[in-house]
Amino acid sequence: MEDWWTTATIEPSIENHELSGIARMTMSPSWHHNKLPTMHSSTMPLSKSSYNVLSAFCTEDNVPRCISYINQEMDSLGFSSACIEASSPEVSGGLNTVPALNGMYELLQMQRRSQRSRQEQEAESLKSSSALEHLQITNSRLKDQLELSKRETSGLHEAERQLQLKIKTLQNCLKTEKDEEQKLQSIIASRASQYSHDAKRKERESTKLKERLNQLLVEKRDKKLAIDVLNYLGRADGKRSQWKTGKVEARHEGEMYKSLLSDYEVRHRALMLENVELKKVLQQMKREMVSILSLSPRKPCSSFRDHVEDSLELSTRSPLRDSTAGSDRDKEVGDCSRETLDQSCDHAREQSCEHAREQLTNSIRQQWRRLKSHMERLDSQASLVQQSQQRAGKELVPRQIHEEEMGRMRLEVQQCKDFIQTQQQLLQQQLNSPCYDDETAALLNDCYTLEEKERLKEEWRLFDEQRRNFERERENFTEAAIRLGHEKKAFEEDRASWLKNQFLNITPFVDRKRHSASETQHALSTSSEPDMRIPSTPARLTKSRTYAAFSTPKAVAGMPSTAELYHTLRLIPDSSSSSRGSSKRGSWQESNTIHSREDSRVRSRDRYGGGDCCSIFSLGLEENSLT
Amino acid sequence: MNFSEVFKQSNQLCRVSPDGKYLATCVQYRLVVRDVNTLQILHLYTCLDQIVHMEWSSDSLFILCAMYKRGLVQVWSLEQPDWYCKIDEGSIGLVSSRWSPDGRHILNTTEFHLRVTVWSLCTKAVSYIKYPKACQKGIDFSRDGCYMALAERRDCRDYVSVFVCDDWHLLRHFETETQDLAGVEWSPNGCVLAVWDSCLEYKVLLYSLDGRLLSTFSAYEWSLGIKSLAWSPSSQFLAIGSYDEKVRILNHITWKKVTEFDHPATINNTKAVVYKEVERKPVVGSPDLSIQQHITMGSTLFNTQSKYEICPLPVQVPVVKPDLDRANPKVGVSSMAFSSDNRYLATKNDSMACVVWVWDMQRLGLLAVLEQTSAVRCFQWDPRRPRLALCTGNAKLYLWSPAGCVSVQVPAEGGFQVQSVTWHCSGDSLILLGKEQLCLCYMEVGEEEDDIK
């Protein structure tokens, strides 16, 4: 098969299609005759159109053979199902077209598939070959690197070995050098001793020589060695020279010691002066220290204690207390030490007494220690305060708190002022109502309130400036409350007498007692006004009377609650109280109760003035919670 | 500031009498005595040879002239010009001659320090003191003239002998704990004797007049030690200059170190003022001629002008690195001087030869630094005022006072180069010594204020 296949492929490449017909004509007999005679007829129409040399496979005579061959081939290829059969035995050249076409189609499909797979494999093979190449290259490169690094390591090993050798030699060198140094040192030492010995020897020799020379020169009676003076001079001091005697020697000694003594005296005096100066300085320092110590620990402690003790821990409070105790001790000690100091200084001035000096130095040391500890304490306090401020600053802005507090306090002051004002007003009313008519009373009240307003305004301004002013204000208020209490008491008495009068009026002794009762009324209130007003609310009066009857025997007379007072005085009519805002009233009552509480505390507060601010704060808080 | 005309002198021999009235100068073998104020020659004496050393007696009545080579000393009287005295030491030789404080005895040190001969001018008596030590300062008289301390060497040990100058009675003789004593110096009040060791060992010993050892001070070991020593006029401080370029100040009560003055190459002490001398050629008609230039303008057109400039800190001071392998290396504080009022101390470090340091003794700190263009030859304090005069071997005189610094050109002709300066005891004039000449400089109070800027 191969033979004709190749010839068939060669020929079309050389010749044209026109020539193919001739070739077919020439070639077809050679193999059509012996191999495929049956297929010739069926392939004839195909060969007419485009078939060239391949058509020679099947001729009309070898169709069945071809078919069988193809079937066999197809079977071998796995297309068993689709067999190409001859369409009919009678038509020898015809084919059953459907399976043939199917077969062809499948063949084409297969061919395409195989082609694709081949292409893929080709690509694969290309890829793998390139990869192989790459791997080979890298391999060779790595081999090179390995070689190189091997060479390097060997080089390094060599260098290390050399270095170690060097170290060894250097160590040897060092050892030899050390030995050398030691040797040299010993040499130097020996040389030095030798030199000093030689020097001494030489010196001895030279002194011997000098001695000898001196002897020689002196013994020689050198003619030249002489003094040639015209006439001898008198001594510079005009005295005659003296013989050398023991007396002279003693005098010289004496003079020497005298000069020494005088020098020591001068020095001593200078030192004394310096000492006195220093003592003065010390004394002054001490006095100042004592004054500082006796003053300063009081101030911070008294001011600090109140709000430091609340905020500080126990551990920090205890040293504070210690300090206050210490300051007391300080003062005592300071006082006594001051006395001793003065004494000691007097002593010191007269005679630099050791004892006095010790005392002075000791007391100075004491004071100094105390001052130091005090300073440290102050430092720690300052740091504590700073810390607490920082802590506070983290939670809230202190300025804001301050402002809030100020606002609250202002509000409170305003309220208190209102309260005081109304109280004053009421008091005035109470006082005036018996003697004046309503208009004049109102006028007076107005005047009074105006005046009061002015005063309060002033006080308000003062309060803004200082908190202490507020305290004073509070005091004023409490005073007013006391006054009110007093007035109340007076009024109660008054009323009691009046009631008695009334009672007496009801009783058969009316006529007899009336005159006197009215007289007492007049004497008390100097007006007949309440006579007309009181009967208008008899029920209330009785009610209050009963209350008064209950309360009077108790401590009520001393400190009645203002609300009750108002009720008894009919100053708060039911309608007005109901028409008023409940909150307002509530606050009033609240503050009233507080005041009544405070009234009871008035006397005690007079003693402890410092508690005010706290109560004010609490009051403010309560009011805030109410409103 | 006025300058006198120039006189001749030789061997830098020019001394003012202690009473301040006379000026004695030596010119070869002649001794010339002049009136200080008029500079007129009062006396002229002729010696036997060229004078090597000349000294006034303490009462200003006699002048000693020594001719060491011939072993001769001649004494002249001012009151009796005819009077003479000649002392011949003969073959034993002479290396040093000096007056005793009473002015009636002459102490001659013979060659090889064999002995000290004490010649009396009152009697024929001659005394010998054996075994004087040849050292930096072997003899010192106390300020009041009562006592003399003499360093001695016997049997390889150092001794100090204290003599009463009145009759040369040996008051005390004691051994000192020194390896090789280098010098002795009385405190100005005459009660403490400072004794220091040679430069091989840093050691200062303080002895009382009666020979008790008061204290010993040693700053360090194993290095070159003391180079110079100076008492403050009040005897309150003892300044010790050493080879480590530091000055240590001892106090007179505990004899312990009060402070230490370092001489650094870089000055960055903000409290110190650094004056630097700046030279420049004179420019005729330049508008910025300062006062002293006006003064010196006339005769020194060809000389360089110089003035002080205040340098901003830090300042690098020129340092010459000494050759430490050679003996006596040029390093360390070699000269120190306290001002007469005890307030200032002037020092010079040899490795910074151009620089003079002025220290404030009240503050115990550096006050001023004078950096000159050439090496400082000599400096001396005014005996009355806190004023320091210095010279650097050129034709200029430099003055420092707390108010400032000034450089003055000496208007002398013929290359007058100031080698040393000496104050007159009144502090009103200065004697400037050149190589072969001398010149007086009169300080005038009114002018002085103008000059010091």
TrEMBL record, chain A:
Biased composition, class Low complexity, residue ranges = 575-586
Choose one Gene Ontology CC annotation of this protein and give it.
Answer: adherens junction
* PANTHER family named in the record: AFADIN- AND ALPHA-ACTININ-BINDING PROTEIN, SSX FAMILY MEMBER 2 INTERACTING PROTEIN
Record-level GO BP terms:
cell adhesion; intraciliary transport involved in cilium assembly
What InterPro entries does the database record attribute to this sequence? Adhesion_Centrosome_assoc (IPR052300), Afadin/alpha-actinin-bd (IPR021622)
Compartment(s) where it occurs, according to its Swiss-Prot or TrEMBL record: Cell junction, Adherens junction; Cytoplasm, Cytoskeleton, Microtubule organizing center, Centrosome, Centriolar satellite
Q: Which residues form a coiled coil?
A: 132-219
Extent of Basic and acidic residues compositional bias: 327-336, 595-607
List UniProt keywords, sorted A-Z.
Cell adhesion, Cell junction, Coiled coil, Cytoplasm, Cytoskeleton
Q: Where is this region: Disordered?
A: 111-130, 297-336, 515-536, 573-607
Q: What is this protein called?
A: Afadin- and alpha-actinin-binding protein-like isoform X1
Task: Give the Polar residues compositional bias ranges.
Answer: 518-529
Where is this protein chiefly located?
other
Organism expressing this protein natively: Salvelinus namaycush
Signal peptide location? none
**Which family, according to the similarity comment?**
Belongs to the ADIP family.
TrEMBL record, chain B:
A cellular-component GO term for this protein: MWP complex
Organism domain of life: Eukaryota
Q: Which SMART domains match?
A: WD40
Which InterPro entries does its entry note? Centrosome-WD_assoc, Quino_amine_DH_bsu, WD40/YVTN_repeat-like_dom_sf, WD40_rpt
Transmembrane domains' residue ranges: none
Protein's recorded name: WD repeat-containing protein WRAP73 isoform X1
Q: What species is given as this protein's source?
A: Salvelinus namaycush
Gene symbol of the encoding locus: wrap73
